[in-house]
Amino acid sequence: MSEDEKKKVIRNIAGFYSIFQKEVLDTFPENSSELTPLLSKVLREIYYTNDITPSLLTKRLAITVPNTSRCLQQLSDLAYIIKVKDDNDRRITHIRLTKKGIEVVKRSISLMDKQMIDKLGILDMEELVRLSDAFSTIKELFEKIGA
């Protein structure tokens, strides 16, 4: 594959990310008056990532370290997360959801599911299968290049 073809792949990935953000990620409802949209995103990122640290969270959400610290403190004060020191390296802190945090994210996911089911309603069964297969392929290939 030529360099130009690889750049085209990269542009397609970036374009996909924008539409995915708009049509899927931005549809996550904020189902708690005490949570800002940013705090909700932080909770979802923690929920979907098995082992997350504040520095990884900062990178994933493209926010500053002080913003990350503030968000984590607010979520800790609300009893949605706990911070756990690494057993092997006490300098590393892992972020985990509490039962309360998991429940609030699951409620949000449930509401988002209902919204997405409505959106997907315009697709016929063949298109839904194609979409599902495409996401399976994308996931598989990204796992391969991430390994």
UniProtKB/TrEMBL annotation:
Gene3D superfamilies: Winged helix-like DNA-binding domain superfamily/Winged helix DNA-binding domain. Residues 1-147 form the HTH marR-type domain. Keywords: DNA-binding, Transcription, Transcription regulation. Signal peptide: none annotated. Pfam families: MarR_2. It comes from Clostridium rhizosphaerae. It comes from the Bacteria. PANTHER family: TRANSCRIPTIONAL REGULATOR, MARR (PTHR42756), TRANSCRIPTIONAL REPRESSOR OF EMRAB OPERON (PTHR42756:SF1). This is Winged helix-turn-helix transcriptional regulator. InterPro entries: HTH_MarR-typ (IPR000835), WH-like_DNA-bd_sf (IPR036388), WH_DNA-bd_sf (IPR036390).
